[in-house]
TrEMBL record:
Organism: Peteryoungia algae
Keywords on record: Membrane, Plasmid, Transmembrane, Transmembrane helix
Pfam families: Glyco_trans_1_4 (PF13692), Glyco_trans_4_4 (PF13579)
InterPro entries associated with the record: Glyco_trans_4-like_N
Protein name per its UniProtKB record: Glycosyltransferase family 4 protein
PANTHER family in the record: GLYCOSYLTRANSFERASE, GLYCOSYLTRANSFERASE EPSF-RELATED
Length: 410
């Protein structure tokens, strides 16, 4: 079976679609990825990639076709809009021309923001009579208003019309949260929608970098509350900062924030202005460093803004946290909170409630180590039962073959 995956983001950018494509290829499927030039999250193109022209690569069993896009830059809504639009245009023209002689059974869209990246996939699927799958990571257009990127009512209506077109034209819509089903069903037939959670494949054991070793050793000197991932508007970073300020007197508790994003500079200014000596801004690390850093944590922290849309979302980092087998502190509402509670893997408080978050952190820090370890073990067991990468990959291949009429054995 031949599968075309359309995703604006791909390796060496760190997204979960990287693992899924490798698993599909390892299962015997012929996989091609149509993507852009890597520049997330820093906004500059990665070393070895030029801004113009179509580039072809082969990595981890997967053929990659890269189209030119405008780099996203830093903290510019105009540049971000150009980045989104350029991928849609380039993928619909140069990308489809580059693979015009190829035939695929399935076209699969990995759809974090922007969902509109599904438009070139829709074109190719219809031109080649292939089945179109869209894996929805963010609800559009709702996510645009929730993050504050777009508030113009006329443009929102236009985006909503395009979203409806994408959903109606899809053969199957996969949603990363069960709470997405009703929202997506407002645009298309419910029968086409399936719950397909985010998978996570733990990184192969590698020697961490010297920088990661030093940071892990430093974490071991206190109760380390570790936040890892994107530093954006959705992550409610002000809640973390407010909680850290409330806990300044607890010399045994330290916050380690690993990652980068649009609010990185704001975060650094807050730490300096409030004299938060208990907060360490660690920057980005390679994926191969993350297992050692997560294992050195006293607890893993996940936060989201108190918006209805985010309450429907399961943060992608949650699967990685569960897999790590460490206790979790969650300042989130809705589906993410439900999963932490169902797994009995940690402590949950409401989004944007810094006081409640600070109390959860103190409570966790004061628990016996054995109790925290039990939470982590329950989380790891829940991960294996619900989010195992191998299990979800087999399920997805079964869905591909169901719709494409390919019933050969896996």
């Amino acid at each position: 079976m031949r599968v075309l995956i359309v995703s604006q983001y791909y390796w060496p950018e760190n997204f979960l679609i990287n693992d899924l494509t490798s698993l599909l290829a390892a299962a015997g499927l012929e996989v091609t990825v149509l993507t852009g030039k890597p520049n997330y999250p820093e906004g500059d193109f990665f070393a070895g990639y030029r801004s113009w022209g179509v580039q072809r690569e082969f990595h981890d069993g997967v053929s990659i076709v890269r189209v030119p896009i405008a780099r996203r830059g830093k903290q510019s809504r105009i540049r971000l809009a150009m980045n989104y639009a350029s991928f849609i245009i380039a993928a619909s023209t140069l990308g489809l021309w580059s693979i015009r002689r190829q035939k695929y059974d399935v076209v699969f869209v990995y759809a974090p923001s922007p969902l509109l990246q599904a438009l070139p996939a829709l074109l190719f699927a219809r031109m080649n009579n292939a089945k179109l799958f869209v894996w929805v990571q963010d609800l559009w257009p709702e996510s645009l208003s929730a993050t504050g990127y777009l508030k113009n009512a006329v443009i929102m209506k236009f985006v909503a019309a395009l979203v409806r077109l994408i959903y109606i034209s899809s053969d199957r819509i996969l949603v990363q949260s069960e709470a997405f089903v009703d929202r997506v069903a407002q645009y298309t037939e419910r029968r086409k929608i399936r719950y397909f959670p985010n998978l996570y494949r733990p990184a192969a054991t590698q020697e961490p970098s010297d920088r990661a070793k030093r940071l892990a050793a430093d974490m071991m000197n206190s109760f380390a509350v570790v936040f890892a991932g994107n530093l954006g508007a959705a992550q409610s970073l002000d809640t973390i900062i407010d909680a850290a300020e409330q806990l300044k007197a607890r010399c045994d508790i330290r916050f380690y924030i690993i990652g980068s994003g649009s609010r990185g500079q704001w975060l650094a200014k807050q730490v300096k202005d409030r004299d938060l000596s208990n907060v360490e801004l660690c920057g980005r690390f390679e994926a191969s460093d993350m297992p050692a850093l997560l294992q050195a944590a006293g607890s893993l922290l996940v936060t989201l803004a108190a918006d209805e849309i985010f309450a429907l979302t399961v943060p992608s980092k949650l699967q990685a946290y569960l897999s790590a087998g460490k206790c979790i502190i969650a300042s989130i509402n809705g589906e993410g909170a439900r999963i932490v509670d169902a797994a009995r893997a940690g402590l949950v408080s409401a989004s944007e409630d810094a006081g409640a978050l600070a109390k959860s952190i103190e409570t966790m820090a004061d628990l016996p180590v054995e109790e925290r370890n039990s939470m982590g073990a329950r989380g790891a067991a829940y991960f294996e039962a619900n989010f195992s990468a191998d299990m979800l990959t087999r399920d997805l291949i079964g869905q591909f073959r169901e719709l494409a009429g390919k019933e050969e054995a896996i």
